[in-house]
Amino acid sequence: MDHFLYRDGELYAEDVSIADIAAEVGTPFYCYSTATLERHFRLFDEALDGTPHMVCYAMKAASNQAILKTLANLGAGMDVVSGGEYARARAAGVPGEKIVFSGVGKTRDEMRLALEGGIRQFNVESEPEMEELSAVAQELGVVAPITVRVNPDVDAKTHAKIATGKSENKFGIPISRAKEVYAHAATLPGLKVVGIDVHIGSQLTDLEPFRLAYRKVADLTEALRAEGHDIIRLDLGGGLGIPYTRSNDAPPLPVEYGQMIKEELGHLGCEIEIEPGRLVAGNAGILVSKVIYVKSGEGRDFLILDGAMNDLIRPAMYEAHHDIVAVDEPEAGIEQQPYDIVGPVCESGDTFAKERMMPPLKAGDLVAFRSAGAYGAVMASEYNTRPLVPEVLVHEHQFAVIRARPTFDEMINRDTIPEWL
Ligand code: LLP
C-alpha cells in the first residue's frame, strides 16, 4: 500500500497534488511519501516484535538524508556499503552504534572512518578483509566487532544481476568453509566476532530461498557456538520483493517474513538484524516526467518523455517493469492505446516500455513511474550532461525539495581545464 492515489481527477502524493509540485519544481523529479516510508519501516519493525532486533535500512536503495532522517526518527539503523554512505548516515544524525558496514571491498580508509566514528559491526566478506580490518583496528587501538558474511549457496530465484547467494557470486565466504574462517578470525587481535551475516539477493518474491538460507545459518550458529564462538547476533540481509504491478501475485508480506524468521531462528536467542532497502523505499517513491512529443513511427507511436535512462536506469539495466500512469486520471472506460515510452538520450536502450497500453496522451501531459523510490535516484547519472534529477519529499499537505536540480553552471563548473590547454 502506498500514498500515491487519484483524488479529484489527478494524482496526489498524500495531500499534495503532483501537478502542483511539477509546476514549482519542473520535471523530471522523484517524489517520496513520508507516510509510505514510515509505514513500510514499521511493518518490518513490528514483524519482529517480541524478538530483540534492529532494522538496518539498506540506504543504497534511496539515500537522501531527509529519507534517512525520516527513518532514523523511527529508530532505524542503517546498512552502509561505502565510506560515502557512512558519512551520509552520520550527517543525517544516525549514531555509529546503529550502523552496520557491508560490502566486499572495504578499503583501509573506509575501515578507519567507521572505527573512529563508531560502528555497530562490520559484515566481513573475506579473509584478506579480516586481516586488513584487524590491522587497522590495532593501529587505532580499538577492537572491531564483526560478523562474517556466509554464502549459503541457495538460488534466490531472482534476476541474475541481483542474486548474491549462489557459490558463483562474489559475495561472502562459502558456508562450507565457515568454521575455518571463524577459527582464523578468533586469532586476529583486532577483531571480536559477534555473529553471522547472510544476504542472498534482492526482489525475492518467495520465502523459501530465505528459509533455506536461514536454516543453514541456524545450523552454523550451533556449530560455531560448540567451537566456542560467541554468536549473539544474526544479520539476515535484505531482499524481500515488492509488487511492481497491480496485477501480479503480491510477494510475501513483512509479517510473514518475520514469522518465518522467528520459526527458523527464534530458538537461538540471538539478536536479529535485517537490512531491507527496496521494500521500505520502492513503493514510497515515484518519478514524475512530462511528455515532450508524441511521435508517430511505423506501426507504433512513441511517447518521448523528458525523463530518461540516466534518471531511472532499471528498465535499461534489468529489463525492469515500472507501471507508468497518467497524472491526470484517465476517464473511466477510455480506450487505451499502445505506446513505446522512451527518453531523449541518444541510445535505443533509453526505452522504458514497449507497446505499453496507456490512455491517449499529448505533449505537456505528466506521467508517473510507480515503484521508483528504490534504486531510482541513487542510480541516476548526468549522462548526456543532463542535470541530476531532483528529489521532493511530501509530508501530509507539505512538500520540500530535498535535493535541488543542479544548474548547468553547477554541473559544468566541476570540470577543470588544465593550464596547458
Ligand atoms: N543488504 C545487502 C548486503 C545488499 O547487498 C542489499 C542489496 C540489501 C541489503 C538490500 O536489498 P533489498 O532489500 O533492497 O532487496 N539495483 C538493483 C538492486 C541491487 C541490490 C543490491 N543489494 C535494482 O535496481 O533492482
TrEMBL record:
Homodimer. InterPro entries: Ala_racemase/Decarboxylase_C, DAP_deCOOHase_LysA, De-COase2_C, De-COase2_CS, De-COase2_N, Orn/DAP/Arg_de-COase, PLP-binding_barrel. CDD domains: PLPDE_III_DapDC (cd06828). GO terms for biological process: lysine biosynthetic process via diaminopimelate. This is Diaminopimelate decarboxylase. Pyridoxal 5'-phosphate binds at G239, E275, P276, G277, R278, Y375. Residues 29-373 form the Orn/DAP/Arg decarboxylase 2 C-terminal domain. SUPFAM superfamilies: Alanine racemase C-terminal domain-like, PLP-binding barrel. The active site is at C346. The gene is lysA. Pathway: Amino-acid biosynthesis; L-lysine biosynthesis via DAP pathway; L-lysine from DL-2,6-diaminopimelate: step 1/1. Residues 35-281 form the Orn/DAP/Arg decarboxylase 2 N-terminal domain. Substrate binds at R278, R314, Y318, E347, Y375. Belongs to the Orn/Lys/Arg decarboxylase class-II family. LysA subfamily. Its EC number is 4.1.1.20. The modification N6-(pyridoxal phosphate)lysine is found at K60. It catalyses: meso-2,6-diaminopimelate + H(+) = L-lysine + CO2. GO terms for molecular function: diaminopimelate decarboxylase activity; pyridoxal phosphate binding. Pfam families: Orn_Arg_deC_N, Orn_DAP_Arg_deC. It is an enzyme of class 4 (lyase). Keywords: Amino-acid biosynthesis, Decarboxylase, Lyase, Lysine biosynthesis, Pyridoxal phosphate. Its cofactor is pyridoxal 5'-phosphate. Specifically catalyzes the decarboxylation of meso-diaminopimelate (meso-DAP) to L-lysine.
